[in-house]
Structure formats: structure tokens, C-alpha cells
């Protein structure tokens, strides 16, 4: 299992969204803010879905990592691909399917 951190750019097929994505510990990581951009939903809604994911199916400690972000004083929580995919299903995002395919491909490289 690799522990090196890598930043890879995810772009939608129509090039309307480009997100820097952290790849570390054999998973992809996004913040709630990045998920709101990806899924085209406001951050408050994304956070509600994240909390529901943790209360219903996943363990928060195993799927959250705080990382430093330039311009932000406090470390920001980032979430694993399992959380990202679960949130994508909940917001019924077509981009979620595109992201899941991209993430699976990026993790194999």
C-alpha cells in the first residue's frame, strides 16, 4: 500500500470542471468544497449528505483525513472515494459516474 501523496487533475469530458485531486494511500481524496463543485450542489447540502453517509454506512475515522490547504488556517477534512461515491449517488449526479470511472482508472496507474 503506497503512502506517497500525488495531485492529479480531474476534468469532465466537456471540460467544464477541472479539480485537483489528492491520491494517497490507494484512494482519492476530496474536500466537501471540491465535492460541491464536482456535483454542482451547494456545500451545505454536500455536508448533510456526508454526515448521513457516516451515520448510515461508513466509519468517519477510516474515511476522513485532515490536510492543510493554502489560504486556510485550520486543516480541512478530506474524504475517501467511498464517501465521494456515496455522496454522488445521494445527489444523483451524472458527474459522479464520470468521476468514479476516472478515479478507478487513476488508482490503477
Count the strands?
5
Tell me the span between the first and last alpha carbons: 14 Å
Query: Poorly predicted ranges (pLDDT <50, ≥5 residues)?
Result: none
Shape: globular
Radius of gyration: 13 Å
Helical percentage: 40-55%
- Number of domains as seen in the coordinates: 1
Structural class: alpha+beta
Order of helices and strands: EEEHHHEEHH
Name the average pLDDT. 90
Strand content: 15-25%
User: Main sheet: which strands, in order across?
Assistant: 1-2-3-5-4
What does the largest sheet look like?
5 strands, antiparallel
**Tally of separate helices:** 5
Pfam family, one: Virulence_RhuM
InterPro entries: BRO_N_domain, Virulence_RhuM-like
Protein name: Bro-N domain-containing protein
Organism: Sellimonas catena
Keywords:
single chain; 109 residues; alpha+beta; 5-stranded antiparallel sheet; 5 strands; Virulence_RhuM-like; Bro-N domain-containing protein
Give a description of the structure.
With 109 residues, the protein is an alpha+beta fold. It has one domain. The protein contains five helices and five strands, in the order E-E-E-H-H-H-E-E-H-H. It has a five-stranded antiparallel sheet. Helix 2 crosses helix 4. The longest helix is centred in the C-terminal third of the chain and has 15 residues. The chain is globular, with a radius of gyration of 13 Å. The relative contact order is 0.19. The mean pLDDT is 90.
Summarize the structure.
With 109 residues, the protein is an alpha+beta fold.
Please give the structural blueprint.
Blueprint: E1 6-11, E2 18-24, E3 27-31, H1 32-39, H2 43-56, H3 60-63, E4 64-67, E5 76-79, H4 81-90, H5 94-108
Antiparallel strand pairs: 1-2, 2-3, 3-5, 4-5
Helix pairs in contact: 1-2, 2-4, 4-5
Amino acid at each position: 500500500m503506497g503512502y506517497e501523496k500525488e495531485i492529479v487533475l480531474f476534468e469532465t469530458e466537456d471540460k467544464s470542471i477541472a479539480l485537483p485531486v489528492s491520491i494517497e494511500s490507494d484512494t482519492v481524496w476530496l474536500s466537501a468544497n471540491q465535492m460541491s463543485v464536482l456535483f454542482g450542489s451547494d456545500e451545505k447540502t454536500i455536508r448533510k449528505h456526508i454526515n448521513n453517509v457516516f451515520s448510515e454506512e461508513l466509519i468517519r475515522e477510516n474515511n476522513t483525513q485532515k490536510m492543510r490547504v493554502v489560504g486556510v488556517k485550520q486543516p480541512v477534512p478530506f474524504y475517501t472515494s467511498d464517501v465521494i461515491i456515496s455522496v454522488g449517488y445521494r445527489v444523483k449526479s451524472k458527474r459522479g459516474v464520470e468521476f468514479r470511472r476516472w478515479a478507478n482508472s487513476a488508482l490503477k496507474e
